[in-house]
Amino acid sequence: MKTKKDIVKDWITRYSGKKINSFGKFILLTNFQKYVDEFAKINNVNIDGLDKNMSSATHEEITIINFGMGSPNAATIMDLLSAIKPMAVLFLGKCGGLKKRIKIGDFILPIGAIRGEGTSNDYFPIEVPAMPSFSLQRAISSALKYQKIDYWTGTVFTTNRRVWEFDSKFKNYLKKIRAYSIDMETATLFTVGFHNGIPIGALLLVTDQPMIPEGVKTKIKDDKNSELFDKKHLLVGIESLQQIINHKDTVRHLKF
Q: Is pTM, for the whole model, over 0.90?
């Protein structure tokens, strides 16, 4: 266990309970077990690693993984995925909308992420932008348009801070940086994916409007929104990867 390669080859099974050669070459990432359950139900497959940190399900060339919440977990999964070098990774994340015009249930296709979480600083200097694979984002856009679903583009601010909705100073800062949304993983996933030479994109579902008191997420609101929007979110993600698979498109950066 002297090299990174040695470590991640062992740890990806330790964290997921899944043998390295049983992962698909196209990966969906989620923070929610419900997405894994729904994927398994749609494709009539079993769920692996329910007793592990990162449960998953695989159908043909696609594996969906619940990696947990927060930027440290995001960095961990992207390091572990370097053991299998997937062709493409798509994050199906949830976020808070920071603009009045952005509504619950809207999709955001991030063109970049602001590295406010700190975790990514261990991989690149802060001056390096957190950017997705353009070709992967284009495939997501095509899938959305095919299903006649509109979406927003813009930047997402990624933070390690989960409870901030009461903090007016922090909210004023968010207004100044002009981000469209806020989450806890996207910038880390983009940065560590780039560090490991893994093409990655993201499609974010707006589930709350945290800049106003009545828009802060509650259990009742979250349960309702999940029932309304989660399956559509998952199906768009699957369709996006299928476009890449079927058309044999490359999604790599010109140079990692």
A: yes
Among candidates 88, 75, 80, 152, which has minimal Cα distance to 118?
75
> Can you tell me the distance from the alpha carbon of 208 to that of 229, in angstroms, rounded to the nearest whole number?
12
- Give whole-number Cα distances, 26 to 137, 201, 219, in Å: 14, 12, 32
Token readout for 177 is: 């940086």
Residue range 4-247 in CATH 1.10.287.1490: no
Domain residue spans of the chain: 4-247
Please name which of 15, 38, 105, 33 lies closest in space to residue 69, comparing C-alpha atoms. 33
Instruction: Give the tens place of pLDDT for each residue, 27-68.
Output: 999 999 999 999 999 999 999 999 999 999 999 999 999 999
The string of pLDDT tens digits covering residues 184-228 is 999 999 999 999 999 999 999 999 999 999 999 999 998 999 999
The single-letter DSSP state of residue 181 is E
